[in-house]
Amino acid sequence: MVLKKENSPSSVSSRRDVPSEAPTTTTTAAESSKAKKSRRRCKCFGLWRRKTKLVPLQKDERDKRTHQKPQESNETQVDDSQEPGHQEVWLGSFMDIVRCHHSVDVLHKLQVLLSFKDIISVHAQEFQDISQKDAHEFLTSVLDQMRDLTPLLSETAAMLGLTYNCPVREHLVFKMQNTRMCNSCGFSSMTFEDFTHLSLNLLPGASVQEMLEEYLTETELEYRCDCGASTSWQQYRFVTLPRVLILHVKRFHFTPLLHLVKLCHPILLFRELMLTSSQANVWYTLVSVISHLGPGGNAGHYISDGVHPEVDVFDPADRWLSYNDSIVTETTGATVFKKCMKTAYILFYQRQVVELRITGTSRKFPSSEEFIRRDSEAGARPSCSSSSSSSSSSSHTAQAASHGFAGRL
Predict the structure, then answer these.
(1) Which residues are registered as beta bridge partners of 273?
(2) Rounded CA separation 351/241 (Å)
(3) 274-284: string of b/e by CB count within 10 Å (b at 16+)?
(4) How confident is the model over 76-106, as pLDDT tens digits?
(5) Which of 60, 76, 200, 351 is the one with CA 20 to 30 A from 357?
(6) C-beta separation of 343 from 293 below 8 A
(7) Where in the chain is the domain with CATH 3.90.70.10?
(8) Sign of dihedral through CA atoms 348, 291, 193, 231?
(9) Packing angle between helix 135-147 and helix 388-405, nearest 10 degrees?
(10) How many CB atoms neighbour CB 244 within 10 A?
(11) How, if at all, do strands 252-254 and 260-262 pair?
């Protein structure tokens, strides 16, 4: 929009000059301050107010009036998340969540969670508004920002004569080997990457074990080698295994018309999961499930189900809790595995202390029922008792990650 001024063009460059024919008026301090504020507001929109008429300022004149040189500013943008004090605020807000965990004040809990979300959004701006967000993306942002606290907390611990271990690296991070080989000349390259979770393709009717095995199979990809070939194959394999394994099921995808669609195909949820690394075969137990309720990806609701915190994962009563916002109800693992077949979105598996070393021979791994029976007959295993604190810490990490981030984001 172009606003024209009846005055001559020369008046545009001398707008602060008072015309000789203008009457002399007396202005109070309050009126003068109000006028200055009005002029500053007009400057923000590239306008200058004079006698209730708005005239667009030329770019060079705006720069002159705001005492800035156009296109010559070398000032770097400061990331709010890296400003001194932001990490302390982040940590304090997270500890507020821990402290109010057993509180019965629902309103206070809501305020604490919203405050934490606002702090997360300083670095992850997609969470600044109140619209529906993705739980997997939010969990990833929280874990990444928690890892960024390591230098600060390590320095603080050192001053106290202590050692800080990042809980994300201690319980969730694992290393994978990515091997890529050319289909023509056979040239191969190998890289190692750290992960906090894996995202699995949804295979209708398949179990989580089968979807994980599909992730680890060889896949062909377009990759131009120096020999001129355009295709290669790559394969991932575990090098190290975490104490708590997070698996994300890809239930949402974009159509060719960029419409976000939810896949409601059922998957099979079993209590046990077997993983193989370069050192051992390890047994994992499903301890928590985050589910997305709703027909589409642009709306819906998140709930969380998890093993009862007061019982062991091998509890014969199979006691679980279902978290739906502020409503907590008792349920069983068998019920959760059945009801979440079409809604399971994020799965948390806890590593068990019993593992089978790779010896080149095939052995059947015991089921949870067999493990319980053996323990009841022979007593507690020494390896379990010596690692009880580590196992308990891993379980609490999985429960906190699952229950803390479920619900409407």
Answers:
(1) 284
(2) 9
(3) ebebeeeebbb
(4) 444 444 455 788 888 888 899 999 888 889 8
(5) 200
(6) yes
(7) 192-223+236-405
(8) positive
(9) 130
(10) 27
(11) antiparallel
Distance of CA 108 to the CA centre of its chain: 23
What is the homologous superfamily of the domain 192-223+236-405 according to CATH? Cysteine proteinases (3.90.70.10)
Given CA atoms 233, 185, 177, 273 in this order, what sign does their dihedral have? positive
Q: Which residues pair with 49 in a beta bridge?
A: 54
Tokens at residue 107, please?
Answer: 């309103």
As given in the structure block, the two tokens for residue 104 are 């019965």
Task: Compute the radius of gyration of the chain from its Cα atoms.
Answer: 30
Distance CA 98, CA 132 (A): 24
What Å distances lie between residue 133 and 76, 271, 353, 359, CA to CA?
30, 29, 36, 46
pLDDT confidence tier of residue 386, bands split at 50, 70 and 90: very low
Phi and psi dihedrals of 155, rounded to 5?
A: -65, -45
Supply the pLDDT for residue 403: 52
Q: Rounded CA gap, 21 and 7, in Å?
A: 14
> Whose structure tokens read 């106290």?
160
Summarize pLDDT for 110-152 with one digit per residue, the tens.
999 988 988 888 888 888 887 778 899 999 999 999 999 999 8
DSSP 277: B
